[in-house]
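Thread: Newbie trying to understand structure tokens

Hi all, I'm a second-year student working on a class project, and my supervisor (Dr. K.) asked me to get a predicted structure for one chain before our next meeting. I've only ever worked with sequences, so writing a 3D structure as a token string is new to me. If someone could post the tokens and maybe explain what I'm looking at, I'd be very grateful. Here's the chain:
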Amino acid sequence: MTEGFHMWDYVVFIAYAILILGVGLWVSRDKKGHQKNAEDYFLASKSLPWWAIGTSLIAANISAEQFIGMSGSGFALGIAIASYEWMAALTLIIVGKYFLPIFIEKGLYTIPEFVEKRFSTNLKTILAVFWLGLYIFVNLASVLYLGGLAIETIMGIDMIYAIIGLALFAAAYSLYGGLSAVAWTDVIQVVFLVLGGLVTTYLALNTVSGGEGVLAGFSKVWEAAPEKLHMILEESNENYINLPGIWVLVGGLWVANLYYWGFNQYIIQRTLAAKSLKESQKGILLAAFLKLIIPLIVVIPGIAAYVMVNDPSIMANLGEIGMLNTPSTEQADKAYPWLLQFLPTGLKGVAFAALAAAVVSSLASMLNSTSTIFTMDIYKQYFNKNANDKTTVNVGRISAAVSLIIAVVVAPLLGGIDQAFQFIQEYTGIVSPGILAVFILGLFWKKTTNNAAIWGAILSIPIAVALKFLPIPAFEPWMHQMGITALLTMVIIIIMSNIQNKGADDPKGIEVSKNLFKTTPLFNIGSITICILLTVLYALFW
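---
Reply by user tm_fold:
Sure, no problem. This is what the structure looks like when written as tokens:
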């Protein structure tokens, strides 16, 4: 147990950084006689294999908000927060079977592009501007802030310098190489992410058991904090407002998950870059299996930290280091950085590389998607419709750089947020229900009209805000607010569409057939296996 970084920690971390930058720049190089075009930069030449798609989906998804924010939520409210991960596995199967066939058939670069083909340029622009704002001011800024918080806690580096360092690291290869550099480095990032996460989990559980191993540690956690090991919270639980019992399974969490995995540019962009639909679906399946084990590396450490902090004998054994940056109910997000202090020399570098991998891979993904949306949906639409490939790629790089600079300025202003994962989910949830309603009806209900979709998206915001501030106890959990907002928005769109088209199909309605949604035996068997594993997990931790 050693305080601070030592030589071998720096060696491991520097080796990781050199490897990522080297691979990122190597895959970014232009082949002799070929200049990078829009498809190369934004969709990795549509050449990604299934294993690169699956690992890249996880690397893009797992960031500081999971490692730090979800561990903090594990500390504060327990394993119930794992519903986000386990329900995501089921959501990915739905996305792979029902959404991807339509998106890939239409040859999309961006999600707003689908909105234009199905509805109108006006609605596409509204949503493109919304996504740009969300990615820059919420996603990029929060990932930079949480990553900076971790570096400040572990290494003592001032947060602003840590934020700038992370930003430069992500920019070094992603701005030049585009999605190809991001996706292929993600394969390596996931190895560090999982390995480092498992090392931290092992250390935490082994410490809880007094050196008797992981199983003994888990048994001690179960004995010392049984209230932290329930997936379905009782209404009397103080954390019910964040994870409202059975409604987590059948309510608003579906809005968050379907929106995030199905209609989120920096997630779905990987699947659009696949060699084929079948390859994309295999990648989705791999990501779904990986989601089942993610709570082991991002939630369990937080619960173990809770047991450690509340056990005087364990804290006495930790000595003076245990009293540094100790997490509490009010500062739960300190749990993961606090645990990293206790790793032995060398392994601390591995765990820190895992955290850096989570931060940098997500930053790179968000930057690439931000530049894709700005370039393809704003710049080419309103500034230069005939832009050639060289101009398009350069605008993508410049817009990504500008987005990153803005996020670096905003990130330090987020100081003081606790349980950042919950914070991000709650406030993204004000706008996501309306967008989900527009997409679901646009995909699967041919009568949906453009005007109805625009009004639905606009009115969903005041509906969400009203539900948030209405003094009605039943509406207090924000997941309820998300679910109700999505349903009310759908009702508005359906009523307005029927009035406008008098029950007739919209000319831009999508023709869907059973053949479009046919999947391979491998996908079907994998999906059934995931459903069985989810049933077992929920039965065990109900």
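A couple of things are worth pointing out once you decode it. The mean pLDDT is 83. The radius of gyration is 23 Å. Feel free to ask follow-ups in this thread.
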